[in-house]
Specification:
- The complex is a heterodimer of chains A (about 625) and B (about 350).
- Chain A is built from 20 helices and 23 strands.
- With about 625 residues, chain A is an alpha/beta fold.
- In chain A, strands 11-10-12-13-15-14-21 form a 7-stranded mixed β-sheet, sandwiched between helices. Chain A has a 6-stranded mixed β-sheet with strand order 3-4-2-5-6-7.
- In chain A, about 55% of the residues are buried.
- An 8-stranded mixed β-sheet of chain B has the order 2-1-3-4-8-7-13-9, sandwiched between helices. In chain B, strands 10-12-11 form a 3-stranded antiparallel β-sheet.
- The chains are: A alpha/beta (about 625), B alpha/beta (about 350).
- The complex binds thiamine diphosphate and iron/sulfur cluster.
């Protein structure tokens, strides 16, 4: 390609140090920006361009709980091997934020690269001696080229993308194609962006040239899609047949409800009347949002809400009601750092206990743990079925890491013959045929009773729903036996749930081992990489990826089959481990914990080091 | 005090309405409330109104919060589905239920503790959303079920049974509902069934958020002299702005009152409300006028009853949301699922 030729012949102003990192399709680039500077779309464009060259990428947004002015980062792992977890460390830092300069500099791996805006030269004493420093006067070029203040700001971002494309030897045609798609019908914008791209490229070709890291066309992306978990879950709700969504804004879940709204506008409008086959209400708070979902679920619509930790706290009284009165509702909890406002824009898996046992009294709720956007889609649709089947709240437990970051994953899939499982609903015909209807009668021995929708039959099947105890025929009762009948039947229902929820995925080690590891949700990609690294070190572990609570029997079997099972989670108190210990009555020492909870997504490096250390310590002991 | 003439029906318990049901079909379980509790009279008025309106009982969804008042849905329309939700949060549950199936009649029953204290937020929002419902607040100025504490509608300076003096300003739920955008606002008195039944009927016919505050004395905790929510006080200080007759459209409307004293209020379904004005200046279409009137008379210690405000052209939540006419809960996978082909297109755009 001619551009490549040009780049190679360009001046090697970067003056690579002898020990500079060299890597093809395997490095980490991190952009340090200021929130509100318009860098997000440029950074995403850069990631997508690499993807279009057939090289997997795994990006992560790291942003403050503030709209403008504070630091924000976008980290892209370029990974031909396909590892989608965070690796840790940075090979090329694009340091666009003076405020975080010092800490950004520290993160660079020895031999790595620093790219910065040299419009205001920094003293050489501030640079590390073990990295390659590449300056480009971005502000200066923009000020000289554009008169409009906003353009000066925005095109600075495109300029650095252009420069990087030269430094990393990327194909400009790929980026131009992305611009074409993005600015379809807006020719002026398309032209000016392409122009800015080439402005950046021309400068870099002349003054910088290629560095030791590069992107080479590969064929590792396949038919995978690139999507964030919140959009995927929203689409899962559309496909799963949700018709009522009530929500209250909270990071990192808001974009889920917003995506549901926009998918519905495209996919759920009645073609004849132009009217909507859905209802979305932005409630006044989370109590109201879950209340609406309870009302809709009671009345036979598939309904869901989306929230994060603090929202779940507010919803708990209603969750107890839905559990005890046996009303199907679906909640998607995009977890963030807690407790309280904690770290609202960082990720954790720290609502496991508060969701599993939400509300007062003895309650237990179904939790599903998707590992990536594909499973966000699948589990959201499955949750709507499960809620109807089990007549109980079902939580989809995603987190910020999956929810708000685009991830490469298998394409969405749907079987057109699939019918919704509406569970045990008695119809007017069945009532007329003389079927016995007791709202809380365990007819099939699976703990799940039949219900009727309001308005079904003029004289049969009507009942009163309440949070107080009742007998099997829904009549008010405060007697001990009626209470026990209900609460024990609810446990039986949970036993049934164990067989209906997504089952664990087990991955055996290359060699027989007495060690296992158990993990769930967004830890998945980092775990896969860690397992391979551990294997390479001769440390073998069988792995179980948990996909739901209540725990399937295979979880017990897995733990029983090993002396020790590491439990990896992203919270301080080892919440899931605690539940395994109490729910399955397992000796705590058999479940060593591996915990990561500083708000950043767990890395393969962290897991590898932590498990290796414990396994070696164990074998020394 | 104002009473309308007794209804013409001589033996309502024997007669059948247009949907072939007797009044008994509208009854529920035997009440467990205190004898003389105003809430029981309200249940009776609901039964009467639904029967006279030819409502099919099973096409009603009755929802309530928690409190003595909120227990009452068990005591009327025994064949309809009822839902005793959580304290103060009935409005959101009713909203969700209404979204799921717009074809039923939604009857929300609440107490003043339920709606004006813990649930004031949801109360306000269900009104502003225009949820199509009849929202009945059984207002006794106390917490009955928890035995006599003050509610937010309790009179300032009044003494509880335990001897505590209430220092807080009361909330006037009627003014609040008007302010929040309810499109039908009325106040009744549990002891005045002749006025109350037509109000409930008109509320049933109204499309949009219909709110009825009903003063409902609590004989156990708030029926003492000095309480503005006692039987005697309301009987002595009731200022009725109008009397209502409710006339289904298809019948010829015969007006035999003096010109200028009767207003016809046409509802969305074509039914007509005849309002016999007691006060010449009272116009139930004028929201600001209604607010002023209520405030003025309240300051004079009077309890203004009647249809205080109605907006005949009100839109309900479903119209705001442009939802399809058939109930959402009847849609099947065929109606809801965009299918594999659409998904493949989405996949394609994500590459
Ligand atoms: C969250 C919650 N807090 C408190 C209560 C206790 N509680 C039950 S009924 C009630 C007050 C009911 O008063 P009101 O709504 O005026 O109804 P009334 O009994 O007077 O008809 C209270 C505080 C509750 N059930 N739930
Ligand atoms: S305590 Fe008051 S409100 Fe409750 S039932 Fe008795 S009279 Fe009615």
């Amino acid at each position: 390609m001619s551009q490549q030729g040009q780049a190679r012949s360009g001046g090697m102003n970067a003056q690579l140090k002898p020990q500079s990192l060299t890597a093809t399709n395997d490095f980490v680039v991190k952009f340090a920006n200021v929130n509100g500077s318009g860098s997000a779309s440029a950074n995403e464009l850069f990631a997508k361009a690499i993807l279009r060259m057939g090289v997997p990428v795994s990006p992560r947004n790291i942003f403050p709980s503030n709209i403008q002015g504070l630091p924000t980062w976008y980290e892209i792992r370029v990974t031909e091997a396909g590892w989608l977890g965070r690796r840790g460390g940075v090979d090329l830092m694009v340091a666009m934020n003076p405020q975080t300069w010092n800490s950004d500099l520290k993160e660079i791996e020895p031999g790595g690269y620093l790219f910065y805006d040299s419009s205001k030269p920094l003293p050489a004493s501030r640079f590390r001696s073990d990295i390659t420093v590449i300056g480009m006067p971005l502000t200066e070029i923009c000020n000289a080229t554009y008169s409009d203040a906003r353009q000066r700001q925005l095109f600075k971002n495109i300029l650095y993308v252009g420069a990087l494309s030269v430094m990393l030897d990327m194909e400009p045609a790929v980026i131009e194609q992305l611009f074409t798609e993005q600015y379809k019908g807006k020719e002026k914008l398309l032209d000016s962006n392409v122009q800015a791209l080439h402005l950046g490229r021309d400068y870099a070709t002349k003054h910088i040239g290629r560095i030791g890291l590069n992107v080479k066309r590969a064929n590792q992306v396949g038919d995978r899609i690139f999507v964030d978990g919140n959009s995927a879950a929203a689409l899962g709700c559309v496909y799963g047949g949700a018709t009522v969504c009530a929500w209250y804004p909270i990071t990192p879940s808001s974009s889920l409800a917003e995506a549901f709204q926009s998918y519905c506008q495209k996919l759920r409008v009645d073609p004849e009347t132009g009217k909507n086959r859905y209802a979305i209400v932005q409630a006044e708070d989370e109590i109201a949002s879950v209340g609406m979902v309870v009302g809709a679920g009671w009345n036979g619509a598939r309904a869901f809400t989306t929230t994060s930790g603090p929202g779940v706290s507010l919803m708990t009284e209603f969750l107890g009601l839905a559990y005890f009165a046996e009303i199907p509702i679906t909640l998607i909890n995009v977890q963030r750092g807690g407790p309280s406002t904690g770290m609202p824009t960082r990720t954790q898996q720290a609502d496991i206990v508060s969701c599993a046992y939400a509300s007062h009294g003895d309650t237990k709720h179904i939790l599903l743990f998707p590992e990536d956007p594909k499973e966000c889609f699948d589990h959201s649709a499955a949750a709507l079925d499960l809620a109807d089947r089990l007549q109980t709240p079902v939580f989809v437990m995603t987190d910020l890491d999956i929810g708000m970051n685009q991830r490469l994953c298998a394409p969405f899939d749907w079987d057109d013959t699939r019918e919704y499982d509406r569970g045990k609903v008695m119809t007017a015909e069945e009532l007329d045929a003389g079927r016995d209807f007791g709202r809380y009668l365990d007819v099939d021995g699976d703990g799940i009773p039949f219900r009727t929708y309001p308005g079904t039959h003029p004289s049969k099947g009507g009942f009163f729903t309440r949070g107080t105890t009742r007998n099997a025929y829904a009549q008010y009762s405060e007697t001990g036996p009626d209470y026990l009948y209900n609460v024990h039947r609810l446990l039986k229902k949970l036993d049934t749930a164990k067989t209906l929820v997504p089952q664990p995925v087990i991955r055996p080690a290359a060699a027989p081992t007495r060690f296992g590891v158990l993990y769930f949700g967004s830890t998945s990609p980092a775990m896969h990489e860690a397992l391979e690294a551990l294997e390479a070190m001769g440390l073998h572990l069988d792995a179980l990826r948990l996909r739901a609570f209540p725990f399937s029997d295979s979880v017990v079997e897995f733990i029983d089959a090993h002396d020790q099972v590491f439990v990896v989670e992203q919270n301080r108190d080892a919440q899931l481990r605690g539940m395994l210990i109490t729910e399955l009555e397992i000796a705590p020492q058999r479940l060593p914990k591996i915990l990561h909870y500083d708000g950043t997504p767990i890395t393969a490096r962290f897991i590898t080091a932590a498990i290796a250390e414990q396994m070696r310590a164990g074998s020394r002991a | 005090m104002t009473y309308l003439a007794k209804p013409k029906l001589h033996h309502p318990s024997l007669a059948q309405n247009k949907v072939c049901r007797t009044r008994r079909d509208y009854e529920g379980r035997v009440s467990t409330l205190c004898a003389g509790c105003g809430h029981d009279s309200i249940s009776a008025a609901i039964i009467q109104a639904c029967w006279e309106m030819d409502v099919e009982p099973h096409r009603v969804a009755k929802l309530s919060g928690i409190g003595c008042s909120s227990k009452t849905p068990d005591y009327f329309l025994g064949n309809s589905h009822g839902f005793n939700t959580v304290h103060g949060r009935m409005p959101s549950v009713l909203t969700g239920a209404n979204l799921a199936n717009r074809a039923l009649l939604y009857l929300g029953v609440s107490g003043d503790g339920d709606s004006a204290s813990i649930g004031i937020g949801q109360f306000a929002h269900v009104m502003r959303r225009g949820v199509n419902m009849v929202y009945i607040l059984e207002n006794n100025g106390v917490y009955g079920l928890t035995k006599g504490q003050f509610s937010a509608t309790a009179d300032q300076g009044s003494k509880s049974k335990k001897g505590v003096v209430n220092s807080d300003t009361p909330i006037d739920t009627v003014s609040l509902a008007l302010q929040m955008g309810a499109s039908f606002v009325a106040r009744g008195f549990s002891g005045d069934k002749q006025q109350l039944v037509p109000i409930i009927k008109a509320a049933i016919a109204h499309k949009g958020a219909a709110f009825i505050d009903i003063v409902s004395p609590c004989v156990a905790f708030n029926n003492h002299p000095g309480s503005t929510k006692s039987y005697d006080y309301v009987r002595e200080h009731n200022e009725a702005v109008n009397r209502i007759d409710f006339i289904p459209t298809r019948e010829e409307i015969v007006v035999d009152y003096a010109e200028g004293q009767v207003i016809e209020v046409e509802q969305h379904d074509g039914t007509v409300l005849l309002l016999r004005k007691l006060h010449r200046d009272y116009d139930p279409h004028n929201k600001i006028g209604a607010m002023n009137y209520i405030t003025k008379h309240q300051a004079e210690g009077e309890v203004v009853t009647g249809l205080l405000y109605v907006d005949n052209d009100a839109q309900d939540l479903h119209e705001h949301l442009n939802t399809i006419d058939i109930p959402l809960n009847t849609l099947t996978a065929k109606d809801l699922n965009p299918g594999r082909a659409a998904l493949d297109k989405i996949n394609q755009r994500l590459r």
